[in-house]
Design the sequence.
């Protein structure tokens, strides 16, 4: 079983923002697989579950993404617990959990895959690390950095919509990220 988490914010006003690139990629992946999202109130997330894969879009807003991730992993008994109750520190979840999110330290049009890396200030990733008690999971970090970042605070930059030119770059990058996601799932 693998779980792929796309990070973003719920609602129409965030749909085309830089911060929602994780949602965008998972939506495209689900479409390619011919799968439909179901809203799950218990998890406060949109979810797709197959026999060997869970796709998850937490609807808790970015800064609380870890809540939904922890609930889904616990519900499906995918977390190894210490003494049947507590999560041990620093579980190795790289083969189980992949998180796709925007990254302001990577140029628009590029992405990097990593495992066991710090949050670099990304609040959604920080939330997941806090709730899972480990940073040892796979991340696909999709670059959104442009020259405009120099002129405004990061919090405002990531909540801006992509320009038409930037969206074209992201659309082109989607196929590369989806190929990497496929490789991650089948290695």
Sequence:
């Amino acid at each position: 079983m693998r779980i792929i988490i796309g990070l973003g914010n719920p609602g129409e006003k965030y749909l085309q923002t830089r911060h929602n690139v994780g949602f965008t990629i998972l939506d495209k992946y689900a479409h390619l697989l011919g799968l439909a999202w179901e809203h799950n109130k218990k998890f406060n997330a949109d979810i797709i579950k197959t026999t060997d894969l869970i796709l998850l879009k937490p609807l808790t807003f970015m800064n609380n993404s870890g809540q939904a991730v922890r609930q889904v992993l616990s519900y499906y008994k995918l977390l190894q617990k210490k003494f049947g109750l507590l999560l041990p520190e620093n579980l190795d979840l790289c083969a189980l959990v992949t998180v796709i999110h925007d990254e302001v330290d990577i140029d628009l049009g590029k992405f990097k895959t990593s495992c066991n890396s710090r949050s670099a200030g990304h609040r959604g990733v920080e939330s997941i690390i806090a709730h899972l008690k480990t940073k040892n999971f796979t991340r696909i970090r999709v670059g959104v950095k442009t020259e405009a970042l120099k002129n405004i605070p990061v919090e405002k930059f990531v909540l801006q919509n992509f320009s038409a030119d930037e969206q074209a770059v992201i659309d082109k990058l989607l196929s590369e990220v989806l190929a990497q996601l496929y490789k991650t799932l089948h290695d």
